[in-house]
Q: What sequence folds into this?
């Protein structure tokens, strides 16, 4: 049974992270929104030293588990991923752009954790526990392959003891941070057999400084401007043979076990993207309630909805949508912590949170009128920051499609 009451340990972590976000992150929000492509290095270095890899634990790297230490005799409730989501929500309450720029393994590290060998985990994940900030990234999207990952054109050809990669990736979150600003890596999805479709698509670890890999563009974005998003080209880019995640074999072109295993990475990270959105939505709601209280506007809870003002109905709907998104997110992560399949719940959480928080922040700006639209307040920034959560790591439309397939029991061929 799911207990929706947070444990004392998570509550303590939540309060601590909230104070940090309020005092250290929120004050920098406007500055690094306006100074796009710059990083708050003092803050990032401090985060690395204090948190040991930023919010790495929230992205699938449990250091105790990686080191192979034995669990204590008295088993504690499994809540690693749930605790990570609470941490993510509070950091993103402070600022989404700065939070996304925090050092850590990111999607690339999550893929290594999900599909890597013990040797790969030791080699690539251990670096996040050092003194210097390090980033991981994942490169999937291409100019002709967005949500349709089967259309990936980037190729990987085995040449002796090396894989040779050729192709182009776009919209790589933290790509510059991983490849130029630190000794990080990017997990690149490429096909080893185009005729095999999804069964031929494999993930490869490409380390910073690898010849033949080049950042070709840094995006100027509407929101999350402190976080870098880049395009990367691969021209005869050679990596060690052992840098493939999973088996290189395409035994049966009608089966996609390897592809599905890596896709399972998103079952862990999509609820965390939902938590990111929830943090931004909570920031907007907190500000709105505080402002209305200062203006002497009372929100009357518990009365007949027909007696409520339009403002009261709007805010209570916003609160209900945010709570629904949070509970869906917690459920998906509770299932993950307890070893239960959560692909349906992960997609539901991300679909709900992305859409709900986009609407919540837009409504908050609308309620505040011209003041909400001005740059005097952070509301307009939260509205810009929120939309990305409805786009990256699988668009809201794709999440609804996945949800429909799981509920109705339809295959990809039956429901497109």
A:
């Amino acid at each position: 049974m799911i207990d929706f009451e947070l444990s004392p340990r998570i509550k303590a972590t939540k309060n601590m992270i909230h104070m940090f976000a309020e005092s250290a992150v929120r004050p920098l929000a406007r500055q690094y929104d306006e100074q796009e492509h710059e990083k708050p290095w003092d803050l990032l270095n401090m985060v690395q030293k204090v948190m040991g890899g930023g919010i790495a634990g929230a992205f699938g790297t449990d250091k105790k588990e990686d080191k192979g230490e034995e669990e204590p005799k008295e088993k504690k409730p499994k809540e690693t991923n749930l605790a990570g989501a609470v941490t993510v929500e509070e950091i993103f309450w402070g600022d989404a752009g700065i939070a996304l720029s925090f050092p850590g393994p990111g999607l690339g590290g999550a893929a290594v954790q999900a599909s890597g060998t013990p040797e790969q985990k030791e080699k690539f994940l251990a670096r996040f526990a050092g003194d210097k900030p390090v980033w991981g990234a994942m490169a999937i999207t291409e100019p002709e392959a967005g949500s349709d990952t089967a259309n990936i054109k980037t190729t990987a050809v085995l040449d002796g003891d090396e894989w040779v990669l050729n192709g182009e990736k776009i919209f790589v979150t933290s790509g510059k941070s991983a490849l130029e600003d630190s000794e990080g890596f990017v997990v690149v999805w490429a096909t080893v057999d185009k005729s095999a479709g999804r069964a031929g698509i494999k993930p490869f670890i490409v380390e910073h400084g690898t010849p033949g890999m080049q950042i070709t563009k840094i995006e100027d974005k509407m929101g999350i401007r402190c976080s870098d998003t880049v395009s990367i080209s691969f021209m005869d880019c050679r990596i060690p043979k052992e840098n493939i995640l999973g088996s290189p074999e395409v035994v049966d072109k009608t089966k996609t076990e390897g592809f599905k295993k890596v896709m399972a990475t998103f079952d862990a990270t999509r609820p965390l993207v939902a938590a990111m959105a929830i943090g931004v939505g909570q920031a907007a709601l907190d500000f709105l309630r505080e402002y209305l209280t200062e203006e002497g506007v009372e929100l009357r809870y518990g009365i007949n909805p027909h007696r409520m003002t339009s403002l009261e109905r709007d805010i209570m709907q916003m609160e209900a949508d945010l709570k629904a998104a949070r509970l869906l997110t917690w459920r998906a992560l509770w299932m993950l912590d307890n070893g239960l399949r959560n692909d349906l719940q992960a997609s539901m959480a991300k679909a709900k949170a992305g859409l709900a928080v986009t609407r919540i922040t837009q409504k908050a700006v609308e309620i505040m009128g011209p003041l909400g639209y001005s740059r005097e307040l952070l509301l307009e920034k939260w509205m810009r920051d929120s939309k990305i959560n409805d786009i990256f790591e699988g668009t809201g439309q794709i999440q609804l499609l996945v949800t429909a397939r799981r509920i109705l029991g339809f295959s990809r061929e039956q429901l497109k």
